[in-house]
Write a structure and sequence with these properties.
Largest sheet: 5 strands, antiparallel
Number of strands: 16
Radius of gyration: 33 Å
Structural class: alpha+beta
Number of domains: 2
Number of helices: 15
């Protein structure tokens, strides 16, 4: 006889574990101080450049314009073509090395002061504080039910945000379409589909990232937050809480002898957390969410001033200083170290080559296209003829006349129907050309020849282009 046994049900409830943290809306407290002033200055500088450059004229054209329709890229007095892609590569390499260098020296300076996400979030928070009040008033508004007052404040805020975002998108498109033409099209409600799409798309991205996502972009979307630690070392300046001085923390009266009670300088007021735009507690150590804005330094210095304690409980310092390997006065001596020296040397070499290349850049480019109908043909007088098409690009801002020669075969003649080869400023012209040679001088099936195109009014402007001459 078999006995049936039932297993008693477990009295423990199932455990649920969330795979991501629920976002707690951050309403940073306003702060004033040295680093706050630097952030304001950088916001004003970057936006003056961004919004102002498209309206600046240079030599009769927009100072900075990446004209995709005509495939010309204007950067002040220079005009680049798709063939000049190497300059963009050099610029990107210099930018990357600069980011590595400044990160190795002083951490996330780019993130804290010049990153578009930081800059536009700062601007949007100014609008928010102007229309909704300080951080306490905003928190109260968040929790309050929807009513006429909340609708009015939120509506006004989003209206101003949307205007700023649209103007930002309009300016962005103005770098690719002449901005005065773009403005006229907007006023006449005659925007093209692509201009309309990019203005709205970039405006929506600005509105969403700076108005809603904010610290989420820095914490979860930006890859720099993840690999920044690779560029840090023990001599990198970072925003640091000095635990040896601050701990043990605790509230106290300003009048008591806190050291006699075994307390550190930190009064555990939490202001450093309240001003942080990403909502972290810097007292827990360096965290990847820290964007290096130094708002906590300004906040802590204000508290130290009120308590009568020395400033610098939270400050820019290095790990080796905190460990006592050298004092704060020795930080500058440790800026020059193998890592920073290598970055500096690489930047100097590449930057020098970049500047030299721009200074010696020849405003002429010639491309050779062969006649695809026939590689070669025999003329009536028994000579061998090859037909080409020369594409001559005048990259200069003035008219040039050109002379045309060819070499590589004895007695090689250049035949062209054009009486004069002339190109207007920034013009591309096509010139049909034939090369004629005596078959006696041809040694082989394929012979290397070179076209020489030279400016008649400036011999320094010259381009030599190699191609092939085919025998029958």
């Amino acid at each position: 006889m078999t006995e049936n046994k039932q297993t008693p049900a477990s009295s423990e409830a199932p455990i649920e574990q969330q795979l991501y943290a629920i976002r707690q809306r951050i309403q940073p407290r306003a702060v004033h101080g040295v680093f706050a002033n630097w952030r304001i200055a950088m916001v004003l500088l970057t936006q003056l450049l961004y919004y102002g450059l498209p309206w600046l004229k240079w030599d009769g054209h927009q100072a900075v314009l990446f004209d995709l329709a005509t495939r010309k890229f204007y950067v002040f007095g220079l005009v680049f073509w798709p063939q000049d892609f190497v300059y963009l590569t050099g610029l990107l390499i210099l930018s990357a090395l600069g980011l590595f260098l400044f990160t190795a020296i002083a951490g996330r300076l780019w993130c804290g002061y010049a990153c578009p996400q930081t800059v536009y979030t700062e601007i949007f928070m100014w609008v928010e504080e102007w229309l909704e009040g300080d951080h306490l008033a905003r928190k109260k508004l968040d929790k309050s039910p929807w009513n006429a007052e909340k609708l009015r404040k939120r509506g006004a805020k989003h209206l101003v945000w949307f205007v700023i975002a649209l103007w930002t998108g309009f300016t962005f498109v103005g770098y690719f379409t002449p901005i005065q033409t773009l403005a006229a099209e907007v006023m006449q409600f005659n925007l093209g589909p692509w201009e309309t799409f990019w203005i709205l798309f970039y405006g929506f991205a600005t509105w969403g990232n700076a108005g809603f996502m904010r610290e989420q972009v820095c914490k979860y979307m930006c890859p720099y937050a993840r690999f920044q630690s690779v560029m840090f070392d023990s001599d990198t300046l970072t925003v640091t809480y000095d635990t040896s001085r601050g701990e043990p923390r605790g509230p106290r009266s300003k009048k008591i002898d806190y050291k006699a009670q075994g307390l550190g300088d930190c009064i555990d007021c939490g202001v450093c957390v309240q001003v942080c735009p990403t909502g972290i507690d810097i007292r827990n150590g360096l965290q990847y969410e820290c964007i290096g804005c130094a708002a906590c330094i300004d906040a802590c210095d204000q508290i130290m001033d009120k308590m009568g304690y020395p400033r610098g409980l939270i400050r820019y310092t290095t790990e080796n200083v905190v460990k006592g390997k050298y004092p704060d006065s020795g930080i500058l001596r440790h800026v020059l170290r193998p890592r920073t020296i290598i970055y500096t040397v690489l930047m100097a070499v590449i930057g020098g080559a970049f500047v030299w290349s721009l200074a010696t850049r020849v405003p002429l480019r010639v491309d050779v296209v062969r006649d695809r109908a026939a590689l070669s043909k025999e003329t009536d007088d028994g000579l061998i003829e090859n037909v080409y098409r020369l594409q001559i690009i005048n990259k200069d801002a003035r008219v040039h006349r050109y002379t045309l020669q060819a070499r590589g075969i004895d007695g090689l003649r250049v035949v062209t129907a054009a009486r004069e080869i002339s190109a207007a400023p920034l013009e591309t012209i096509d010139v049909p050309v034939s090369l004629v040679a005596d078959p006696v001088a041809l040694k082989g099936r394929s012979i290397a020849v070179t076209f020489i195109v030279q400016s008649a009014d400036d011999p320094r402007i010259r381009d030599d282009v190699s191609t092939k001459f085919f025998n029958r």
